[in-house]
Amino acid sequence: MDLRSNAIIENELATRCRRLSQAAALFTVLMGITVIFSWIFDIEFLNKTHTSANIKLNAAICFTLVGISLLLFLKNNGKHSNLLTDTLLPLTVILISGTTLAEYALNINIGIDECLLKDHWAESNDFPGRMPAIVSINFLLCGCALLERNYIWLKHTLCLIIFITTFDALFGYAYGNHLLQHISHYSKSSLNSNITFLVVVLGVIFSNPEAGFTRIFVLNSLGGTLARWLLPIVIFIPPILGLIAFKGQQLGFYNDDFLVIIIVSLVILTFSTLVWVTAYSLHIAEKRYQKAANKLKSVHLRNKKLRDTKQHLEIISSQDALTGLANRTCFNNLLEHALARASRYNTLVAVFFMDLDNFKLINDQFGHAVGDKLLIETAKRLKETLRGSDTISRLGGDEFTVILEDPLDITGIEEVAKKIVDALNLPMTINGVEIFISASIGISYCPKDSFQPEILIQKADTAMYQAKKLGKKQYQFYTSSLEPKT
């Protein structure tokens, strides 16, 4: 899967997270408004279940403010750009919860608990209108999380603290354990408020799907898939199975010892399932990786083949097939570059135009195969005689050219020409037969003769014919006297 497809899938997952967060915010606002409505019109069943305490009016107001703040934050596409969502609503929640905690800590009553409505549902050992301490702490953390703008990890950590305390309280209600519901009477939280806290912290966490803890959930990768599947299983399945086992023990289906065995068996079953799901996911991922690796390998091999073919074609297009020297096209290109450098740095460039003497007679006498081997041997001797930086080419037939760059002076050019003549005067052994051959060389050079490649080659060719006229086996420099008179 390419990067564009991954980005599309991750954007879709991020959109789903924001929709989940929006639904959580709406639920929180509706819960808060419903409880406020129950307080105004004294409708207790809208506020309290038969097994838990009711939600105080201040807590309902805080829930409403938190939900509205989250909705406005999501409306701004997850950006802090509004003073109302950035500061006022979260600070109001922090102010209400912080004041309540101060009342608990200092054992005072400043009148905030019943400043709007009297609490007719308060128990005898309760502070009328005052929300529990644990609820105040959760609202304080929630307000700080909504107020946090830059450090998403800190924001999510505050939400996870609320999630843990709320989850423990829900365990208490599910298992009938009052110790889990509250530390003391004044920290007892209602079932409705715990459910609402659980929903709202999930909404706050999923409001920033591109960062923090929720980043892993929107990744289109093995890690993202495992997180989306395994984390809900780990959080919800063990409590549900434990609750079923606990209810069976309460109904007398088995004793405490058998309950322990059932719980251990359920834990083993749960984690075995997780291990199997993880192993299967890794297996699928490995197969996909292997498939992608094979595809990448085939693409790499195809590209390598194309590169090799391209290099081969470049070699064919720039080299003489018989001798492996540069061909005419390559020679012309290299000569242009050499002359450009000479013009820029004011240096010498010499062009040698060589023709093998009596090559046609040898070709006719011994055959074309011997003639080809003679050309190959000539190319070999030229390579051995000249420098690696000098360019040697075969223009065709028995014609060879040399580009001599950066000679010190004319004497240096003559010395190289003499070496070539001497090297080619030595006999060559072809198929066990010694063959004597020589070369006539014409020389032109810039800047004296020209900076134009065609003119330099033409003048070197003219000088080569002059060398043949003078008896062959020698070199001649181009002079203007060699041009035909008009």
Give the % helix: 55-70%
Q: Which stretches are poorly predicted, pLDDT < 50 over at least 5 residues?
A: 180-186
Arithmetic mean of pLDDT: 82
Shape: elongated
Give me the Rg, rounded. Answer: 47 Å
The DSSP helix count reads: 14
- Taken in chain order, the helices and strands follow as HHHHHHHHHHEHHEEHEEEHE
Main sheet makeup:
5 strands, mixed
Return the domain count.
3
Structural class: alpha+beta
Distance between the termini: 76 Å
Let me know the number of strands.
Answer: 7
Q: Can you list the strand order of the major beta sheet? A: 2-3-1-6-7
- Tell me the β content: 5-15%
Overall description:
The chain has helices at 3-40, 57-75, 83-106, 133-147, 152-175, 178-181, 191-205, 222-250, 256-318, 328-345, 359-366, 368-385, 410-425, 453-469; strands spanning 349-357, 391-396, 399-405, 428-430, 433-435, 438-446, 475-477. The protein has 486 residues and is an alpha+beta fold. It folds into 3 domains: 3-220, no CATH class; 247-318; 328-482, Reverse transcriptase/Diguanylate cyclase domain (Alpha-Beta Plaits, 2-Layer Sandwich), CATH 3.30.70. The strands form 2 sheets. It has a 5-stranded mixed sheet, sandwiched between helices. The two termini are 76 Å apart.
Summarize the structure.
The protein is α+β, with helices and mostly antiparallel strands and 486 residues long. The chain is 63% helix and 8% strand. The protein has helices spanning 3-40, 57-75, 83-106, 133-147, 152-175, 178-181, 191-205, 222-250, 256-318, 328-345, 359-366, 368-385, 410-425, 453-469; strands at 349-357, 391-396, 399-405, 428-430, 433-435, 438-446, 475-477.
